[in-house]
Amino acid sequence: MKYAIVEHSGRQYLAQEGSLIEVDRMPLEVGKPIVFKDVLLVSDGKKVEVGAPFVKGASVKGKVQGHPKGKKITVFKYKPKQRYRRTQGHRQLLTHIAIESVGLPAAPKAAATKKAETKSTSSTSKPAAKKKAGDKSKSTASKAAASSNKSASTSTKKSVSKPKAEKKD
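Predicted structure:
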């Protein structure tokens, strides 16, 4: 069974193929497709892949089924001995999404071959090593100039002490 943990509007939802999830109201029409790309975890039943923070290449596809209201909640405020009582109701606006498919990331074998190709091309470039050797000589020269600037700046920042006034008896 394929499933995924999806993040949407600061909350996490368990999305299984063929299931229905309830999220906060989204401005989409009924029947419109939706794709969640913020996938935190993906499983195909055998292998589980956890993202850091998201799984690259994974996506969850679904369709908007409807826009119902949630269960009614009663909010009651009360302060004893003050004759203060307030009652208020609330029904959260929701969107039902039917999960159609859980898209797993691409095979890691293809990514491994790409990494091997980039390593082989970067190891053959020798001019970069020559530049680094030249940079070392510049860095020692700049260090010497910086140290001379420090000594010059410390010599100009000498504090001048004022002579203390002598007491007359």
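Summary: The first strand starts at residue 3 and ends at 8.
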